Amino acid sequence: MIDDNLETIKEVVGHLLEKMDFDGQVLVNKDEREELAVNIQTEEAGFLIGQSGVNLDAFQHLIKVIIGKKTGQPIHFIIDINNYRKHRIDLLRELAKDIAKQAMLKRTALVLQPMPSYERRIIHTVLAEYPGINTESVGQEPERRVVVKPTP
């Protein structure tokens, strides 16, 4: 089922890029967890990514809506541009580890900057493996953030 959708996703992304007058190469593959990843390689990444990835988030939402209508079912995949999200995920993992060490050292709760839900999920997932650390999301969107605190 997933393999059948690879070509559809590639075509839709390529067609939308063309309609938006952007040049780019679209690569669709499955990662180690069998999740679909779409990476667009382009010289015009800044416009497509936008400030803090807002354009990329909107582009991904639009593509998912189009794919859902075309296939008749929602399909989970992530769109990346020039590996922006991959680098961001790596940075978030490092941030999570550093914040956990600081929280343990200072024995106090530390509050991270507001971030989208998928970024908060990365922080929670990484720190779930840390004994002595608890995390929770607080606040309302778009100001929702992660609090990292040592367990009592």
Give the tags.
single chain; 152 residues; alpha+beta; GMP Synthetase, Chain A, domain 3; Ribosomal Protein S8, Chain: A, domain 1; 2 domains; three-stranded mixed beta sheet; three-stranded antiparallel beta sheet; 5 helices; 20% strand; elongated
CATH class of the largest domain: Alpha Beta
Write the CATH homologous superfamily of the largest domain. K homology (KH) domain
Question: What's the CATH architecture name of the largest domain?
Answer: 2-Layer Sandwich
The helix/strand series, from N terminus to C terminus, equals HEEHHEHEHEE
> How many separate helices?
5
As for the CATH topology of the largest domain, it is: GMP Synthetase, Chain A, domain 3
Distance between the termini: 47 Å
User: For the CA atoms, what is the radius of gyration?
Assistant: 18 Å
- Report the helical percentage: 40-55%
Number of domains: 2
Which structural class do the helices and strands define?
A: alpha+beta
Strand content: 15-25%
Q: How many DSSP-defined strands?
A: 6
In what order do the strands lie side by side in the largest sheet? 1-2-3
Shape: elongated
Give a short account of the largest sheet: 3 strands, mixed
Query: Mean pLDDT, nearest integer?
Result: 92
Provide the low-confidence segments as ranges. none
What can you tell me about this protein's structure?
The protein has 152 residues and is α+β, with helices and mostly antiparallel strands. The protein has two domains: 2-82, GMP Synthetase, Chain A, domain 3, CATH 3.30.300; 87-150, Ribosomal Protein S8, Chain: A, domain 1 (2-Layer Sandwich), CATH 3.30.1370. It contains five helices and six strands. It has helices at 2-19, 45-49, 54-71, 84-106, 117-127; strands spanning 25-30, 36-41, 77-81, 110-111, 133-138, 145-150. It has a three-stranded mixed β-sheet with strand order 1-2-3, sandwiched between helices. Strands 4-6-5 form a three-stranded antiparallel β-sheet, covered by helices on one side. β1 and β2 form a beta hairpin. α1 packs across α3 (54-71) and α4 (84-106) packs across α5. The radius of gyration is 18 Å and the shape is elongated. The model has no long low-confidence stretch (mean pLDDT 92).
